[in-house]
């Protein structure tokens, strides 16, 4: 009997302890308004997590747990409405590197950092207004589906949107149509082969398109980026660029990064001269790493270029050889023509002479 009651006590203690563990609390050292929580396994629809949060908490930051729970991947598979409500509907959320596959944007959320996940879906139910001003989706290499980007077009209060390293190939036609407050847009390290500037919002002040496959930067009279100050086009496939047309499109431009493109030396010189004339910087003096070139790069007038920048490519050699062959052919032609003429002249002269001697 004694044994049974002690087993019973053990069971009760175990259940109570588990209940307590299930109610998740802010980690020691959390700030007053920012609660730091360990990530845990969360599958939507399977369980409803319970938290014990101070009433003043407005922001939640998830971090990896310090000691790994055995058998747990600590994956929050989806940041959905249920989880958001259970967290007392925070205004700011930071959930990074948690293999999250989908996020549902809640109307009151103002700041969201979901970078370095595996997001394929951004759920933005229509017919609602969204407070979201800052959205970081960098390093979500599965965010290819154009509809995920189309959904972002409903977040009309966005001021900052980070979509770098997301394998983006095309930008949906109407994606930025209603994002009239968007000031910072980063689309670096994607697979963009072309860009339509007319699609972009006029409110942009910073635009990053570096490390893509852009072969041209098509400025047109229709495209207007009147507030753009900082434009980064480094590391694309640009062979030329019209600075005058660019400045017509973006008259406020102050920093324009153009290095690491396959520009020939005279072309680059003309671009840099024009930028100098217009007081537009082409590297950021405040960022020391901006002046450090990589291993296979050369430094030229403050710009990093591929190390074959000073070398001639085989196409250049081919052009030179063709020119040389052409010249030789021309000279040969002239020489041949000359000898023929000379012979004719001689013959004519000779025959005249012989004719004269005849009688
Ligand atoms: C777009 O948002 C709708 C509404 O929330 C959702 O049903 C759909 O799955 C989302 N699509 C993508 C690809 O994110
Ligand atoms: C959303 O609003 C549009 C018009 O504003 C309406 O046609 C549509 O039926 C609404 N959809 C829902 C799901 O309420």
TrEMBL record:
SMART domains attached to this UniProt entry: LRR_TYP
Protein name from the UniProt record: Leucine rich immune protein (Coil-less)
PANTHER family in the record: LEUCINE RICH REPEAT FAMILY PROTEIN, RE54577P
Organism encoding this protein: Anopheles coluzzii
Keyword NADP: no
Transmembrane segments: 317-342
Keywords per UniProt: Leucine-rich repeat, Membrane, Repeat, Signal, Transmembrane, Transmembrane helix
Keyword Hydrolase appears in the UniProt entry: no
Stored Gene3D superfamilies: Ribonuclease Inhibitor
InterPro entries, A to Z: Leu-rich_rpt_typical-subtyp, LRR_dom_sf
Signal peptide (UniProt feature, chain positions): 1-17
